Amino acid sequence: PTTKLPKVGTTIFSVMSQLAAQHGAINLSQGFPDFEGPEALRERVTYHMAHGANQYAPMTGMPSLREAIAEKVERLYGCQVDVETEVTVTSGATEAIFAAISAVVRAGDEVIVFDPCYDCYEPAIEINGGICRHLPLTLPEFNIDWQLLKSSLTPRTRMIIVNTPHNPSGATLSKADLDQLADLVRDTHILLLGDEVYEHIVFDDQPHNSLLTHAELAARSFVVSSFGKTYHTTGWKVGYCIAPAPLSVELRKVHQYLTFSTATPLQLAIADYMKKDPHYTNELPAFYQQKRDLFCALIRDSGFSFTPAKGTYFQLVDYSAVSDLDDVSFARWLTVEKGVAAIPVSVFCAEPNPSMKLVRFCFAKGADTLNQAGARLCQL
Ligand code: PMP
Ligand code: GLN
């Protein structure tokens, strides 16, 4: 009774990164690059700090950054958004997600998430008195079970959270999936939260099917992204949320008192860089696909089995031919004894299936790191 979030402990990302550091393991657990973002981008931060951009940004975000975001979503997704009323810059996608959920979820409202599910949704739902309903994705492809979703909707369903490309599986939603979703929510009051932080990391020449590409869905969606993933700057914590004006009004009521605004020089630097090199994001899929392919080639002859990720910078692997341990124990063992840290997948599931033996590796690493990790993983 003294805690509002009895189920919440320390996130697996902190736990595994700490364990990796403690044992000197190669850290392929928490998702972050071990290389720098574009120098021209980082220089703009220094420039703006040296030139007086050190006070509060406007609550909704620097106009130049909101304009660059609006230009991007029109160019990539054919979605016209109003810079003043529909784009809000936040302190990371995490803040945008928390603000969106807090803005619309009332006590007793149900929110549907799909397991395995990124870990920041449920605490945000529960601290607002909402009820988090976990629906399992269908293995092996981690697809949404539309029949199950349909039968799980109730008059209390307030929101459905979709994450594409999906962390941890790398699965992506197809155009047909978006149509299915539209069919299910039509004539309801259900809102959508699209966690699209890996929007620019989709492989094999496939498009990213953003909720913003689908006018009917966009009209009821908060769509969230993060510059941390796009520019290899996870430590900057700059993200944004796009939502129709009435939803953005509500989102901003929370954002205004949660953080008020986001670091000014970082926003200006990102805006400058987006303007200077708008096609940077076109090169990102090939950049990360090469890393995915290298990592997959390195572990091809290991005991792991896997299907190459369709997006994100994570690769899931099945270790059942290597060990009988449960995934949490296996990830610890791998870190402590074999010197490679990974994330167990069961921690993203409300009702983990004990026969699911999966761990997640982050391949957003330089070739040396991946080669070294690959060599260790092949010795298991
Ligand atoms: N959603 C997903 C699926 C993520 O993987 C992350 C990453 N870290 C976030 C949200 C949070 O992004 P940010 O670091 O910008 O808060
Ligand atoms: N999103 C990152 C991951 O999935 C971690 C973010 C965090 O550490 N909070 O690994």
UniProtKB/TrEMBL annotation:
Gene3D superfamilies hit by this protein: Aspartate Aminotransferase, domain 1 (3.90.1150.10), Type I PLP-dependent aspartate aminotransferase-like (Major domain) (3.40.640.10)
Domain (Aminotransferase class I/classII large): residue spans on this chain: 26-371
Cofactor(s) required, per the database record: pyridoxal 5'-phosphate
Keywords: Aminotransferase, Pyridoxal phosphate, Transferase
SUPFAM superfamilies reported for this sequence: PLP-dependent transferases (SSF53383)
Any GO CC annotation of this UniProt entry: cytoplasm
Domain of life, source organism: Bacteria
GO molecular function terms noted in the UniProt entry: kynurenine-oxoglutarate transaminase activity; pyridoxal phosphate binding
Alphabetical list of InterPro entries matching this protein: Aminotransferase_I/II_large (IPR004839), Kynurenine-oxoglutarate_AT (IPR051326), PyrdxlP-dep_Trfase (IPR015424), PyrdxlP-dep_Trfase_major (IPR015421), PyrdxlP-dep_Trfase_small (IPR015422)
Similarity comment: family membership: Belongs to the class-I pyridoxal-phosphate-dependent aminotransferase family.
This protein's name: Aminotransferase
Species for this entry: Oceanospirillum multiglobuliferum
